[in-house]
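Section 3.1 - Work completed
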Amino acid sequence: MKNDRSLARKRHSRRQGKATTNSLRGKTAIVTGASRGIGLAIATVLAREGVKLALISRTPPPPGLDEAFLECDLADPARIPDAVARALGQLGGLDFLVNNAGIFLEKSVPKISLADWEKTLRVNLTAPFLICRQTLPHLAARKGRIVNIVSSSAMQGYLHQSAYVASKHGLLGFARALALEARPRGVHVYNLCPGGVDTGLLQGTELGARLKGQPMIRPADLAEMVAFLLRQPANVDLPEIAIRRFV
């Protein structure tokens, strides 16, 4: 009898310690800005995991992902509702939203035109707001997940990046407030805040010159983190993750 009880306790312990992460196979996702860089890496990893994708961006991704492509310039707010509606129709329901698309602006304040300022906020802040507003009911129906690719610029200022920093601070603030609304509906909101990612956004910039030759975060590293977040059980919340280069 004693041995039977001991065996039962061991079995219970194994069950309690067993990983309960979720499979992504068969899920659906919208990813913005998926034609290159971080977005392309995310789309590639999610496709590998068996996720059905709708990829919203200005230009198509490489062959293999191009069938999921939906053209939309996120700098034009008037075009976003139709692109999202087409994505939802293509997917037939929505489990995940990855707000990745963004533009980088590196200018001193006196040199920033109003057009520069407004375009940066339209892409980096207004587009995620519009997409979240339209998709939240669909995500709530499946108790889905939102992942925002934010930036370390949401947490501090950087030289000659005032418009970009403002847009990313705004995105993080919006996402924090959205999480409070989404939680009662069973929707998780995750914010990844990386600094120093090796993408084309840095080409020809002062920041790129300063970081040249230093260890960088790879887009594939962030893509694996996104998949990790989407696999988490519903009782686990990882609302914000700051990701830094290890130098």
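Second construct:
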Amino acid sequence: MSGVGGGYPSDLTDEQWALVEPLLPPARVGPKGGRREKHPRRRIVDAIFYVVRTGCAWRQLPKDFAPWPTVYWYFTWWHDDGAVERIHDALRGKVREADGRDAEPSGLIDSQSVRTADTVPAATRGFDAGKKVKGRKRFIVTDTLGLLLAVHVVAASIQDRDGAKRPLLWTRLDHPGVKKIWADQDFAGRLVQWAAQILSRDLEIVRKDPDQRGLGGAGSSWRWVTGRCLGSDMGSGGLERGSCGEPRDPVRGDRSSPSGARGAAGARRGRAARRTGRLRHAGGPMTRWCSRRRGRGRSRPLTA
């Protein structure tokens, strides 16, 4: 626990705050200076993580945090300033460095259709006929440790080969060292040619064996990696129901937020970054999602 305020499970520890604090932008003051910020930044960050983890509306923040308009103002400032993304990228780099991995990894792309909260506008929802889910579809690109590189949220009715173009493009622009990306057979077809011709990237389709059951089998270990990210990061309260709001809607909280996804991922990155020498990654106990399933030993380990 943080030792200040309410002591919620989502609060940062002292070690986590020591990693995050230097990455926040400096205080906004005029040319002649100005008054100091009224609320401790640590409690502002704790409040943001509380919203991401629980999925509550901004107005429902407990009273022991700063007033919700103040917390929301900081969130929009740090979102527009790029601080949220910088924090996430910095923590991901620390985790990869501690694990002895290259700075620029290979990539994995996957999608997940989820039911959404009642507050989500009907215009941004759709029906996934294959999964029989009405709601939204989340596309993620991760490295081989399951650390988030890109996230994109669309209506569940969007086909994988169409919705994947934007996160692949973002990965190409933000992480130019990622040359190869693995995907399952739902992404096969025109998308492979598009990635090669437009992005100059190798999108490799991993197909199931005809007699394969579930996620086991050779070549399927990457499914456990993306599954961990979807199960732990995207399982945070607001994200799992599609109700974690983008900065443009502080009251209703009815947008599935890439910033919220990075916030949830950043919290996990902060916990992992301080476990140098004993990191837990794909197939390990770091994620509840994978630990509840069996057969991980049958998968070929990823080394990229």
